[in-house]
Each structure stands twice: as C-alpha cells, then as structure tokens.
Fold this sequence. Notes:
The structure holds two protein chains of two kinds. Chain A has a single domain, classed as Roll (Thiol Ester Dehydrase, Chain A). Chain A is built from four helices and five strands; from the N terminus they run βααααββββ. Chain A has helices spanning 23-33, 38-41, 43-48, 67-77; strands at 17-20, 84-93, 102-117, 120-132, 138-149. Chain A is elongated. Helices cover 23% and strands 32% of the residues of chain B. The chains are: A alpha+beta, B alpha+beta.
Amino acid sequence: xxxxINKGMIGKESPPFVVTVERGKIKEFARxxxxxxxxxxDDRVGQASEWGDIxxxxxxxxxxxxxxxxxxFLRELGTDISRLLHGEQEFELHRPIRPGETFVCRSRxxxxxxxxxxxxxxxxxxxxxAVTDRANEIVAVIRHITVIRL
Amino acid sequence: xxxxxxxxxxxxxxxxxxxxxxxxxxxxxxxRYAGASGDFNPIHQDDEFARAAGMGGVFAHGMLSxxxxxxxxxxxxGAGAVRKLGxxxxxxxxxxxxxxxRGRVLATSRHAGxxxxxxxxxxxxxxxxxxxxxxATVALPARG
Lengths: 150, 144
C-alpha cells in the first residue's frame, strides 16, 4: 500500500529563518568535499582577493537549514527520512558570500507531482528558497527537488 | 596548472574542462560531509538502516557529488565565478566508487560587461555510468 503525500502542501511557505555564515564552517565544508581552493581556506589569500575575505564554495548554502523544522515538514508531507532521495538541485548565485554575513531564507513548496519510475511510484516535491542579505538584496535562489519513494 | 586564470576571450564552444577525479569514496568522507553540511540522514552512514530502507546499503549524499562537480567548475573558472549550477542526480554513488567530473562549453555570451560561459557538466563512476548531469553558467574576466 503506497503512502499518500499531502498535496495540500503546494504553495506552503515555511517560516523564514536567519543564518550567519561562520568562517570555520566555510573551511569545514570545503575540506569535507576535498576542495582545497585557497579562496575558501586561506584567510590571507581571501583578504588579498577582490572580495576582501574568503568566500564560500558554490554549494555551501546547502548548510542553510532550519533544523527544528525539517522533521515536522516531512511529517506534514506524510513521509519520513528513510524514503527520501535527492532528485535535483540548482543554485542561482548572484554574488559570492563571505564569513560574518547574515541572510534570511524563505522557502516554499512550488509543486508536488507523482511519477512511476524504474523503481516504482515516486512523488516529487519541488521547493524554492530565496536568500536575501541585510540590505534585502537577493543573493541566491536555491531550487531543489526531493524524491519520495511511495 | 591548477587555478590558472581563464579569460573569456580564450574560451570556445566545445572546449572541455580538465577532468577532476574524486574518491574512492570512503565512509569517513560521508561522515565528514554529514557534519559539514548538516545532512545527517542515516541512509548515508548506517548500512543496516540503508538496507532496511530498500537501498541495498549506504550511498553518498547527492550534494557531495554536486560539490565535486562544483569543484571541477571552479578549478577551471575560478572561485566565485559560478552564477548558476544545476544538476540532476542520475545514479547512486557507493562506497569505493571513483567519481570523475567533466564539463564542456556549450555557449558564450556577453551580458552587461560580463563574459558568460554556459557549460554542460556531469560526473561518472568508474564504469562510465553518469551519476550527475547538469549545467552551469560562469562569469569570466575579459583579457586586458
């Protein structure tokens, strides 16, 4: 009996959450990927660069999470973490980000649809997160598709 | 040379990025990536959990593979050059897999003084199966 995904979540906006980029987190993230680019890791190289500091790698905003909210979000969708696969991910980056910057993230469910693939029926949950800075300028738009095995 | 500066004027459609080989994937890297990214889904850590979930064992975070592809792009175009990076996760990356990231120039254009380069990007495992496919746009400086 396949599980039922709550399509009433389409259009739902999560409460905005605030993140501040930590210097050590940028370095930890780059090292975890095994990316030793000095633009991410070396403060002196960063200071001498056009950005005046180290910057974060392109996929760093995946660390922008509202931890408290994710289990509740899955429950409301009608699933749990063991059924999830990552389908697609896109970062539209308007500028590099640096340590100490604070951003507001606003996420919403754009679409939910079902398809049957090689491994059986699946639901696709498309979400979009807008990231804005202190000046309320858009810094990035993140689009992600989560696949739920039904 | 790694991190050699690439200029917009020198880029042609069809040019290929230097391949970036990552791995073999080890459990410790997945544990490290979980800590760094905040994605603690046990499906990437706990083999028993992953088998019970019907996934046949632990596999790598898709975002780790995307990080590899992003590195291939920035090793070539420079850190901070990426304007857009979008991928589809086409296959699972397992422990001991080697992931080779590749890219090719699809188009070049100029917008508001910036030289933009559209890339086709992908990653394949040691059997040549694509595990990530996607596109990227980078901004490159003009020569002189």
